[in-house]
Design brief:
transmembrane helix, elongated, 35 strands, about 1250 residues, Calcium-transporting ATPase, cytoplasmic domain N, alpha+beta, disordered C terminus
Length: about 1250
């Protein structure tokens, strides 16, 4: 019953939950949601009514249903109902089949997920169950690399101290590992099934919600109440990594999980043109009613004053009153309904059949495009819907994920600077940098990562010569990190919490400086084939404020501090003697940043024993302080991290997907604004923004990372004020009303051509950039003036949460729409959808969302167009999308070629279709004035039935499927050609009105010119030419020739197929009517057909041919002259592009302008390329021994099995005793000492190394 929506039991809103482990009956009584999920729109019961309801929301379908009802009344209908039933059923069935196909794919995906298997504790054994059968309160066992079944509270894991590692790619797009930890009190349960089956803890926690960064609850067990936090929970969608097994209690299942709470519902999407067509159909219907009303009124008067006296020749129906006025009124009312049927061809059902057919073929062009096929992964482009193609040509906002969408999730060591010498650039004999990839040969190494390539032999030579600085550089990289080694198939594999760290440590290994192993107090390395072990004294952990990490190690009595971090932070801490080397390194850093690389500076300092001991004692006091612990620890770190010696800098490439920078650059030139919504932090996202040319150094970039609503509001106002000042400074604009919404269009400024609107001269002197990022020196002269490429905005997820409130969201939108690019960092899946919705609802612009993971599904479903990339994060995004392909760069071709062509074609199709049908239908209207307003048809009924099917359909279908203004290559090389679609220039209400007027005028000429030519003419035999059949055939023939030649004038792309269709249609018209009007039909069917012999009689007269020539000249010559005049004196962007494609007139000028732009020297200082995705908390985990490398743990267990057993009880008592100390310390502070994934919070707990070591029950030899 719950499957049927209207029979679902009303759900009571939850405030909190309370469950008991291993008590399925009590938990089931509370009727919590099961673990089965559904992302589909329909089921067997709801498909037909729900789908028909959605289809009849399209007014045209409702309009044709109404016509069908009228045609079922024989008294008023002159057309058989089957002429409407068949096309209507065809359109409805075609759409229903497509929708069913899409939904079946969703059902299959749901079934695949729901039928995954996992193990649960039932009684005293492990039982394998399907995911859909898992209930809240069940204890489940997860295996390594297994997806988490539901949201679960950790009970125990295979790792020491209940730690486990997870990958959250499907939640936030990040592939770096995060740490979660079970409660200390439940760790001892381990994997003992008998103990787990008796585990009877009660858990009280918050109701289901969509906050990924928060979990609040309490676990009550053995008369103890233990607090539960986010670090104790594994969320559905995450994946267990580097952990053999983990047990947990299901707290949220199925639709209640945080992943599903962040996922949007699949919606029925319709295009902007569909919405416009709905309004147009409504307008046409009113126009039809007006025409019918005119005919009704005229019929009433005619029947009353004329027809009443001629009833002997034109008798009234028996059900009509014999009273003159009442009978005329009844007759006119019936005529009203008859004219609705006759004149309904202003919007024939064939319109929607043709539109669906055109969209289907346009979708196939996308499917069949070999240039959008990604061969490495065998992924072709796929149009998963056929109804949204033209909307691809009208996109104004793109919302993109970063990780896996713009980037490859691969970090590689690319360049470095060591003591003023730069490595990584290959030069030729003349000293010029070699940039041609074909001339570069990678160096072969004995051991390296698959993606690592190195070309510069200078660094290899320096290592071989024993360069001391190079040796120190790589020694630092092999020691200063929190990477954990693990042996796999006899080789060392690194498990890093940050992909940056993995890249640096792997690069050091490649060059012969191998990190081998670590314990809580030592690091083992192999430096140029020589083994060495360093005592690990301290890890000075990374955090967002420090932007650096340090390690203090000791070897051979020498104590050294190694430090790596942001260049701005390292500079402040350098010894005064390092200025010169820092200046040289600065130049290298600027070059690295210009190349879009992520940079870190490396430095070191030698410490004497007394100095270190004094500092260590101070750090211990800070770690045990009960007040302002965090501040005191950071101050202590500051004291030791000073007077550093600079070693150099690293440059890591966060590998973009191929062609991403060029793609984004062209999309920006097409007037499309790109917003990146990512789970990464600000520095990472900013650096990628520079790499992919989304952000440039000539942009005015603002950052919002405030942490409360008042500060965010204040920052938004500050940025708005700075924007106003900048606009007034650079442009001839004086903003009088500063409260009015800011908009470039209000000032007449084209955002694609800022330089054209700049002030002629700017004052000399220095101008400080409002956001303080850089200083600009303005010299006199246009070439030296400050460069400006628009505004950019970066905002963190925490600030975004406040900015999306009802109070501030319009302010955020105002600033966002003023920017060329917006980057939202640390955002949740739900926030992504909220940002998309904000723009959709208030800007009324067409939006596109693109992503590759489950965390992108909500925004993909929310946007007008959703695009999924078949990437490394599963197929959830693809299944939720409207279009999919293998690489981000194909988006450029999808929009600039297929989207633009689709919009162009459907626009030309619609305006021509309305033109030809108004021209056809209005002839009935004019004929009414000459037929006593009797609803008599002008044309042969066969012609009425076949006009839109055979005689005018194929040329317009060829126009809608094949036409193109310029080639695909030209479309991509000239992105500004995309802007007409954004401005609705090819089809709008004005163009529709012009098409209607054109059709009405055409119908007048086609009707009245033949009428005047035959009204007083006779055939050679003396018979009149003014009979209905001859006149109707003449008008029909002229109609076919004129509208098809008009179609030819509309077409830009003439092919052999189009020639065949165009001339074939005209020829078929003549052949069809020769056969239809011949005596053969009369002899076969033995019926008196009034049109027999009409074709031969009409076509044999010179009057017809003269009338045809005269009508075509009157109608087509003005159109030809108008087009010639427009193209000659008022050319559009398309006209210029077509001319340039033919004569290539602009290429030289464009090339010169491009070179000048590239050679232009920016006057802004290059910003730091620092970006490091490390997270705080891993240092204490390592030094405390909570997190051990697999090899270290294994070696220790092999060396000391007996010692471990003997000292187990002693160790355990020490462990429990010191746990109390630890818990007391923790309770005195709101910070948690074991929070490695704490970017959402800014509260951290630090303990001294001595204390942390004491807390761990590990024995030493």
């Amino acid at each position: 019953m719950n499957k049927i929506p209207f029979l679902k039991k009303k759900k009571v809103e939850e405030r909190s939950r309370k469950i008991k482990a291993n008590d399925s009956d009590a938990n089931a009584a509370k009727e919590y949601a099961g673990n089965e999920i559904s992302t589909s729109k329909y089921n067997l019961i709801t498909f037909l009514p729900k789908n028909l309801f959605e289809q009849f929301r399209r007014l045209a379908n409702a309009y044709f249903l109404f016509l069908l009802c009228l045609q079922l009344i024989p008294q008023i209908s002159s057309l058989a109902p089957v002429t409407t039933i068949l096309p209507l059923v065809f359109v409805l069935a075609l759409t229903a089949i497509k929708d069913a196909s899409d939904d079946i794919a969703r059902h299959r995906s749901d079934s695949q997920v729901n039928n995954r298997e996992t193990k649960t504790v039932v009684g005293n054994e492990l039982v394998t169950r399907k995911w859909k059968d898992i209930k809240v309160g069940d204890i489940v066992r997860l295996e390594n690399n297994e997806f988490v079944t539901a949201d679960i509270v950790l009970v125990s894991t295979s790792e020491l101290n209940g730690l486990c590692f997870i990958e959250t790619a499907e939640l936030d797009g990040e592939t770096n590992l995060k740490v979660r930890q079970a409660l200390e009190e439940t760790c001892d349960l381990e994997d003992h099934i008998d103990q787990l089956s008796r585990f009877d803890a009660e858990i009280e926690y918050e109701a289901p919600n969509n906050n990924l960064g928060r979990f609040e609850g309490n676990l009550s067990w053995k008369n103890k109440t233990l607090p539960l936090k986010n670090d104790n929970v594994l969320l559905r969608g995450t994946r267990l990594r580097n952990t053999q097994w983990a047990f947990g209690i299901v707290c949220y299942a199925g639709p209640d999980t945080k992943l599903m709470k962040n996922s949007g519902k699949a919606t029925f999407k319709r295009t902007k043109i569909d919405h416009l067509l709905n309004r147009i159909i409504l307008g046409i219907f009113f126009f039809l009613l007006v025409m019918c009303a005119i005919m009704t009124i005229c019929c009433g008067f005619w029947e009353s004053f004329v027809g009443y006296d001629f009833r002997i020749y034109l008798p009234w129906e028996t059900y009509i009153s014999n009273d003159q006025h009442i009978g005329a009124l009844e007759k006119s009312l019936l005529v009203f309904l008859s004219y609705i049927i006759i004149l309904n061809t202003v919007v024939p059902i064939s319109l929607y059949v043709s539109v669906e057919f055109i969209r289907l073929l346009q979708s196939k062009w996308i499917d069949w495009d070999s240039k959008m096929y990604y061969e490495p992964n065998n992924v072709p482009a796929q149009a998963r819907t056929t109804t949204l193609n033209e909307e691809l040509g009208q996109i104004e906002y793109i919302f993109s994920d970063k990780t896996g969408t713009l980037t490859q999730n691969i970090m590689t060591f690319n360049k470095c600077s060591i003591k003023g010498k730069v490595y990584g650039y290959v030069t030729d004999e003349a000293g010029n940098e070699v940039q041609d990839p074909e001339k570069l040969k990678p160096i072969q190494f004995d051991e390296k990562d698959d993606d690592f390539e190195w070309y510069d032999h200078k660094l290899i030579d320096a290592i071989k010569k024993g360069d001391k600085d190079v040796h120190t550089f790589f020694t630092l990289l092999s020691l200063c990190h929190t990477v954990m080694p693990e042996e796999k198939d006899g080789k060392i594999a690194y498990q890093a919490q940050s992909p940056d760290e993995n890249a640096l440590v792997s690069a050091a290994r490649t060059f012969g400086f191998v990190f081998v192993n670590r314990t809580q107090s030592s690091i083992s390395v192999r430096l140029q084939e020589k083994d060495a072990t360093y005592d690990l004294l301290n890890i000075l952990d990374f955090d967002n404020d420090r932007k650096r990490m340090s390690v203090i190690v000791k070897k051979d009595g020498k104590i050294i501090l190694f430090c790596k971090g942001a260049d701005s932070k390292i500079k402040e801490r350098l010894d005064s003697s390092e200025k010169d080397i820092m200046t040289e390194t600065d130049e290298h850093l600027n070059k690295f940043a210009t190349d879009g690389l992520r940079t870190l500076c490396l430095a070191y300092r030698e410490l004497n024993e007394g100095e270190y001991n004094k500092w260590a004692e101070k750090l211990n006091k800070a770690n045990t302080s009960m007040e302002k612990r965090e501040e005191k620890v950071n101050e202590t770190y500051e004291e030791i991290e000073k007077n550093l010696k600079l070693i150099g800098a690293t440059a890591i490439e966060d590998k973009l997907q191929d062609g991403v920078p060029q793609c984004i650059e062209r999309l920006a030139r097409a007037g499309i604004k790109i917003w990146v919504l990512t789970g990464d932090k600000v520095e990472t996202a900013y650096n990628i923004g520079l790499s992919c040319r989304l952000l440039t150094n000539d942009m005015e970039i603002y950052i919002i990372e405030e942490e409360n609503e008042h500060s965010v509001e204040k920052k938004l106002e500050e940025i708005r004020k700075q924007m106003i000042e900048k606009v007034e400074q650079l442009f001839d604009v004086k903003i009088e009303d500063r409260k009015k919404r800011l908009d470039w269009k209000d000032w007449g400024i084209d955002v694609m051509k800022f330089d054209q609107h700049r002030k002629a001269e700017e004052p000399n002197g220095k101008a400080q950039r409002p956001n303080g990022h850089a200083t600009t020196t303005n010299d006199s002269g246009a070439h030296d003036r400050e460069q400006f490429e628009g505004f950019g905005l970066l905002i963190t997820g925490q600030a975004l949460a406040f900015a999306l409130s009802d109070k501030l969201k319009m302010k955020l939108l105002e600033l966002g729409t003023m920017c060329k690019a917006v980057v939202c960092c640390r955002v949740t899946p739900l926030q992504k959808a909220q940002v998309v919705e904000l723009v959709m609802q208030n800007e009324k612009k067409i939006t596109l969302a693109i992503g590759d993971g489950a965390n992108d599904v909500s925004m993909i479903q929310k946007a007008h167009i959703g695009v999924g990339i078949s990437g490394q994060e599963g197929r959830q995004a693809v299944l939720a999308s409207d279009y999919s392909f293998g690489q981000f760069r194909y988006l450029e071709r999808l929009l600039l070629v297929h989207g633009r062509w689709s919009y162009l074609r459907i626009s030309k199709f619609l305006r021509y279709f309305f033109y030809k049908n108004f021209a056809f239908t209005l002839c009935h209207f004019w004929f009414g004035f000459f037929s006593g307003f009797s609803a008599q048809t002008l044309y042969d009924p066969f012609f009425v039935a076949t006009y839109n099917v055979f005689f005018s359909s194929l040329p317009v279908l060829a126009l809608g499927v094949f036409d193109q203004d310029v080639s695909a290559d030209h479309s991509m090389s000239k992105p500004p050609l995309y802007t007409p679609g954004q401005n609705n220039e090819f089809f709008n209400k004005k163009i529709f009105a012009e098409s209607v007027i054109h059709g009405i005028l055409t119908s007048c000429i086609i009707f009245f010119v033949p009428y005047l030519s035959v009204s007083n003419s006779t055939r050679p035999g003396g018979m009149t030419q003014a009979d209905l059949q001859s006149f109707g055939f003449m008008v029909a023939t002229i109609m076919i020739i004129v509208v098809n030649l008009e179609n030819a004038l509309e077409t830009w792309y003439w092919t052999g197929l189009y020639h065949f269709v165009l001339w074939g249609t005209i020829v078929v018209h003549f052949l069809f009517h020769f056969v239809l009007y011949s005596t053969i039909i009369y002899q076969i069917f033995n019926t008196n057909y009034g049109y027999v012999g009409v074709a031969q009689a009409v076509l044999s007269t010179g009057n017809f041919w003269f009338t045809l020539f005269l009508t075509c000249t009157i109608l087509l010559l003005p159109v030809f002259c108008r087009e010639f005049f427009r193209m000659r004196f008022m050319p559009t962007k398309t006209d210029r592009a077509r001319l340039n494609q033919k004569f290539r007139t602009e290429e030289k000028a464009a090339f010169v302008a491009h070179i000048q732009q590239k050679l232009r020297q920016s006057k802004r200082s290059i910003r730091s390329g620092y970006a490091f995705s490390q997270q705080q908390g891993w240092g204490p985990l390592i030094t405390s021994g909570r997190m051990q490398s697999k090899s270290a743990t294994r070696n220790r267990q092999q060396q000391q099995p007996q010692s471990q057993n003997q000292n187990n009880n002693i160790s355990k008592s020490i462990f429990l005793k010191n746990r109390k100390t630890h818990m007391m310390s923790e309770s005195s502070s709101p910070k948690n000492s074991v929070i490695p994934d704490n970017q959402q919070q800014h509260h951290h707990h630090h303990q001294s190394p001595a204390e942390l070591i004491r807390l761990t029950p590990l024995t030493s030899s």
